[in-house]
Amino acid sequence: MLEIEDLTVSIEGNRLLTDINLRIEDGETRMLFGENGSGKTSLLMAIMGLGDYQVESGRIRFKGEDITGLTPDERARRGIGIMFQRPPTIRGLKVKDMLEIIQRNGKDAEELAAQVNFTEFLERDINAGFSGGEIKRAELLQLMAQDPDLVLLDEPESGVDLVNLDVVGNAIGRLLQRDVHRGRSKSGLIITHSGYILDYVEADKGCVLVNETIWCTGNPHEIMKGIREHGYEECLTCQRELK
Ligand SMILES: Nc1ncnc2c1ncn2[C@@H]1O[C@H](COP(=O)(O)OP(=O)(O)OP(=O)(O)O)[C@@H](O)[C@H]1O
Ligand SMILES: [Mg+2]
To answer: For the chain, what is the radius of gyration of the CA atoms?
Structure first.
């Protein structure tokens, strides 16, 4: 689904990511860990082609096609979708109208909104005055309408209350075809700090961003336990031992 080869990314002349290599198979859900400021959001933005992130070297391939030079909308049309950590407010554009614009596969806005307790927000402008948890559900709802093949989720559970955590988690599980065990086609790359989302998706691999690059690919539960006990720097040590 996604192949990133030796990707180096900078913003305003500051290098944020160096020689990133990452491969996500069809049907795979991958977790991405890393301390604040390590570059996780930057990696997702670079995959989507957004913002001022400059690819200095390396390649991003999606379904075998080199998408490194494509615009964000071209990437979205090919089947990549993102839930932003901090999405913008779009005044003058109602949630309902956005869903109509981006929907693929004839998804009905009202039906989708009901699935994430969001019906009462359909007439409101996107993110205008939304609470933190409401923004997450608005983002998720847009992804459900777009129904991408590769889903990039930036801390999807962060700030979501305990009841809505279940709603959001289950909707993400459906988006990633959690219940399809043979021939699953949707893939995901999910950033998490708390790991709550692991209860709702079938993630078999996790990896850690430290010192501008990806280390320690392995079982996500074990990686989280390792980080809790020994911190992020330990990932460098354990990777060196493996080499
Ligand atoms: N224009 C810029 N100039 C310099 N540094 C920048 C610029 N934009 C972002 N950064 C820095 O890049 C680093 C990576 O940011 P990023 O948002 O990718 O981190 P993150 O891993 O997602 O962190 P968090 O877990 O807090 O969300 C941060 O230290 C940030 O301050
Ligand atoms: Mg971030």
So the answer is: 18
